[in-house]
Amino acid sequence: MMAWLARRLFPVLATAALVVISMVATTCYPLLVGKAAWALPHDLWGTLVAAQRLVHGNWSGLYAKPTGLVGLPGAAVILAPVAAVIDAAGLSLQIPGPHNPYPIVWLLAGPYEVALSGVVLFAADAIADHLGVTRPRRALLAAASAVALWSVATRWGHPEDAVAVGLFLFGILALSRSQTGRSGWLIGAAVAVQPLVLLALPFAAVAIKPQRLAGFLTRAAAPGVLLLGAAAVANWHATVGAVTSQPNSPAVNHSTVWTSLAPHLDGGVVAAGPARVLAIGLACGCALIAGRRWRAALDADGWSSRILQELLWWAAVALALRCVFEPVMVSYYLWPALAVALIAASPNWPRLIATSAAAVALTYASQLSWRSPWTYWAPMMAGLALTLFLARVPPPGAADRQRAPERRDLSPTEPTGGAAT
To answer: How many other CB atoms sit within 10 Å of the CB of residue 405?
Structure first.
């Protein structure tokens, strides 16, 4: 354990700091500035209700009001442990508001969901370690990644996004070590938790030998299919309606230039599902183009540091496509691309410093309340493009042809798909 703590010191410290700062910022700070309630991530409560229903075996209620669940059931699975504790303690999951300004349940759920989100920090550090990134650069990577993670975990309460990206990154790390089976299961668990990683899945698939691709894709699909199938059998109408339409409200969140083109549903919301399918299709096309050169290099020399960096950068680009075509934007949608871009930039000081500065600035700028597509969505897209440009992998040189440091296997205490969930 001590050896593992020394090896993963930076994500441990970053996660602990994020938990402490998050709890202070949500409970103590609002009272100091004269607020009448804690500043809590309201989105978390619906997923907690779904997790509580899962603990009770109520699969038919996963997609019924008031859960608001639109992804796969894995989002509820990862919160099931804390939901079980909340249920055993007899605490209410009433949504915070004027009649519930200080929900005690946050003192349990808050530290749990923020710490759970830290799995992505461990995945980032593990990949950086594998790439041979120096400890000072890994310290900066952990700090910048934790600041960007604040938007997802603390501000909006979506640990499923962080867990999914973390599991996906561990899957990419396993793939770079020629552990295709483990990679498939880890990425499958990521998809089951939050299917946004489907955008980056094609870039992992093109790096796999054709004879192993069917087994990889089967593992990547199995967890999500099983969980979604169980929910659909229990309540077909609610499950299919939520997962295929994925409604979002332009009145509550930020409209984009695509809002008027999205299918409009009852209650003033629009369906984001079709736009996300388009983004996945474009990601597949980009993966086919990039994968041709990777496949030749992998067949000739195996995994190199440069191929891993390029795969990570293209995965960040794919995750950014969601924001480009999204009919309704929420600030934490930017985070997955920023998180992966930071890892791709970590082997080089200038790239890492510039990317960290851009990612942190964009994280805070995205919290602005501007509603016009041209005063919010357009600047966010420009900032996202700048961050990806700063993180881009430079043209190949002699140093890039060196093989990445070998790691025969993950440490027994390294976070894996099972430990993270």
So the answer is: 11
